[in-house]
């Protein structure tokens, strides 16, 4: 079934064009139907994916610009498939989160296409094209449809990520000039024995690291994130945290760590320290927020920090036992997916509160449990999932990350536990303020979950339970890839 | 039947879980179906537990293990398992029995609550998680259930969410226990890393079996201490005990089931379960980790007993007594008396549930009043509650011979007295015995004796549905002593898997006599101190506490729980909050600026290049443009629009050409 | 006096000069046209003269070109006059000094 991946990338783009052939009021249903098509494509992809085969699958390769080593090369391994599935899940979820006009829908679809492209492209030029392509819709969506301070937030978001991208591009140009290839697989093979030498290696490493660190974001390059997420409309915030932030993590797994194993190893402790800062300081800052969206945004930094912890631990260890490396990598992949759905659900639920109240300060609500028990119940599930309660999805990823990284880098992992504690405090504080106490006066007319909201949130929550209780189906997607990568890093 | 249950052990926790889900999906008004479902689920769990318990009676040291793969990551399988051994089986029996009584009691106690349905859903959820905890054969599965009981506890403490104090208490409980849990989590990771498995027993490969233990080496002490952190949080050991008294904000059946009988004992159970790790490399029965367990237990037991003396809330007194008793159990485990500790745990489960339900009955009868100084004279108004409460009080105080608590305490004192490391814990425990008798006497005098006061004017006996569980638990508390006596130490042998034989000689040993004397002393002291407290003006609460009259400073110190809450609020909490604010501030003003500052280098470069642009390239281009424009203007002047001028120019040009050619030629 | 090439060339040059003078000095558009026609006539005369005194084997190219040129001149005069009339109708003058719209 060659062409499935190209179809996946094309479907949303076609959808974006198709929106303009129909009346504007039909935009969202049309966009959703194209989402369904893409999701179907992703499912077919999953079905055709051989979970036992190592390496890239369903590869499509065409020459593009031979002069600069650019070619159209797409293919998936377990990680790519996982992220494709995540994207297929998050985007419709975001579409259901709010009303949007035609331009909004079109930009979202373009972003979807860019995400698919990023997660499947196996050549740097193509990858970078998609990577940047996601940036512009995100920028416009924040800039045009955002809340207050949207101009500042959008500009900050764009500048940070764009400067990061430029640095990364320069890094890659350096690699290309030295080794003459943009192909990920080739480069990863070369990377095992040192891709570059001397200062050039460090410069290229720094450039690529910067680009990815901003995207993830990793402390201290995260300051654009609270502003951007706070100003972004609900649906956009969901995609930003649910799918877009995964591009950075994906980049670390796919590019930085395989290409620069030696460099990563040398400054591994420093990278781990940055990850720990993400894990510890972000939830502390979240604790001090009064805006719910900002709070969730900071916790996003924290959760991605766990991913970074796992990855850096794997990369920084000269000799990790296979089980630990695999645990950390599996945990990171699991965490990528879990954080995607959980954080998106949290933003969705905060969005529901905001729609009802018009405000989203933590002090603007109170006693909601008496008025909207269902909303509170589902929101609690999402929060408990986010703080890593066993039985829900968050625990699986965090447990494996901690298992892997504790065995490799015990002291750092011990510090990271503080993050788990503070996250719990943050959510406990939020739940106390929102759900309990006497019913706040201006909340007394709130409707509970409407049927369409139930239809949106319940499947996602059930998925959280499913992964939390019986996660094997999710592990099957990437187990082979994990084994392969563990050999690469080991 | 037993075989079938053993093969399907997962059903024991699964049934209450399923019941909880079903109840949760019921509409809010279906009180009766919720109650019936929950009680039926609990009965089912009890029956299944009983059948799982039976085979452990047949063979000493029986152990049934059933492991399964939870999931595979990479090419490694993560395995969990279920386990029935005497330790798990007695816990199963105790939890389901006490649980059933409390479920029944709750149907009466919570009858008027509008969230009745939700309450039973939570209660069933708790029951499932707790049952899962005791039969898990994997530290990870145990941790999972551990967290889930924590969740149930959180939900139930904050059950009356409309009350800000309840919500605050729930938050405090969750966060405080989570501090301990994270230590536990680290210990678990460490253990996993060292031994490569988290299964307790796995046909010789488990982490509690010889091969697994030898792999731990010197790290065993740290692993044990980290695991003990979890136990400290859950079992309310100093310094993580602060949540437990506040947890009394929850409905009283919750306090009885979760915060007295079962969940808080999970910490003790955990230490008992992981005992091989604690005692690894013991010299003469003493290891550093066990030493810590003992001293934490001693501190907790004494501190909580002291605080209990000065409390006025009927449930808080019991809460501190719970903490104190848990400390006692820890001491017992620490000095090597695992069986003694577990026996006390089981006995405590019965009598503390009894006391709490009795307190609930009192509160119910006094229309929600919890202050013992406003009660009084209830012994005639609530005879069943009074007599069962008295049994509970005797048992807790450790009156020997007829009450289970007396035997188990005697057992603990016996093992503590023989601890080789120090005699001090033993002496402190003896002080604890006196204190326990004292504060229980105080409580019972205030509540049941003397004249009626404000809250007890219109008190009434609780309905049958509430008194029946009291009677059942009281019978359990007494009958349980049959299997505890040194004359027939069946439970001890059962738990240790050995036939220790009858030690009739212990019946006449000084420890037994001593504890009898001390309990009596405690009672006497209590009666003497509080003899006047009962007789007071009818309309006013009891006057100043006699202890307050005698030692007002000391009383205030104890009444305010030794100011530990305040200490934490001023230090740890304030520090955390400060760092939160600092992080936020740093984020807004420092990191952002720093990153932008690096961006500023780029900006400077930009200004520099912009200068070159402005002054050099741009100016040059400008000059060229101006020149071109001037030239154009100059040339355009020649275009006069006069056709004849053009013509003449052409003519002159032609002439000039002509002349040029002529010259050339 | 036998007609020689020089004679024709002198006449032609005179004719051209008179035409040029007329085109440059008159202010009336029609006179300018007439001057231009005279210059054309001078050119035609040259064609014929060069043909007549050239090698005799040549076909009568000079005459042909002259006739061709006269035809074009006629057409040109027609267009020119029409323009003059149109200009006159628009500006009420044919004085070329006033017609300076093309001034740069």
Could you explain how this protein is built, in words?
- The complex is a heterotrimer of chains A (490), B (665) and C (104).
- With 490 residues, chain A is mainly alpha-helical.
- Chain A has a domain at 269-490.
- Chain A has helices at residues 4-18, 27-48, 78-95, 102-120, 124-133, 135-145, 150-179, 184-191, 198-215, 224-231, 234-259, 261-266, 268-287, 292-316, 322-357, 368-371, 373-386, 393-408, 410-435, 451-469, 472-489; strands at residues 57-65, 70-76.
- Chain A has a two-stranded antiparallel ribbon with strand order 1-2.
- In chain A, strand 1 and strand 2 form a beta hairpin.
- Chain B has helices spanning 2-7, 11-24, 31-58, 86-109, 116-135, 139-157, 164-195, 210-216, 219-234, 243-246, 252-261, 266-273, 275-278, 288-309, 314-334, 338-365, 378-381, 383-397, 404-417, 424-448, 464-479, 490-496, 510-530, 546-550, 552-559, 564-638, 643-664, and strands at residues 64-73, 76-84.
- Chain B has 27 helices and two strands.
- By secondary structure, chain C is an all-alpha fold.
- Chain C has a single domain (5-95), classed as Helix Hairpins (Orthogonal Bundle).
- Chains in contact: A-B, B-C.
- Chains A and B meet through helix 7, helix 13, helix 15, helix 18 and helix 19 of A and strand 1, helix 6, helix 7 and helix 26 of B.
In what range is the share of β-strand residues of chain A?
under 5%
> Whole-Å distance between the termini of chain A?
34 Å
Q: Helix count of chain A, per DSSP? A: 21
The fraction of residues in strands of chain B falls at under 5%
**Radius of gyration of chain A, CA atoms, in whole angstroms:** 21 Å
Assembly classification: heterotrimer
Largest sheet of chain B: 2 strands, antiparallel
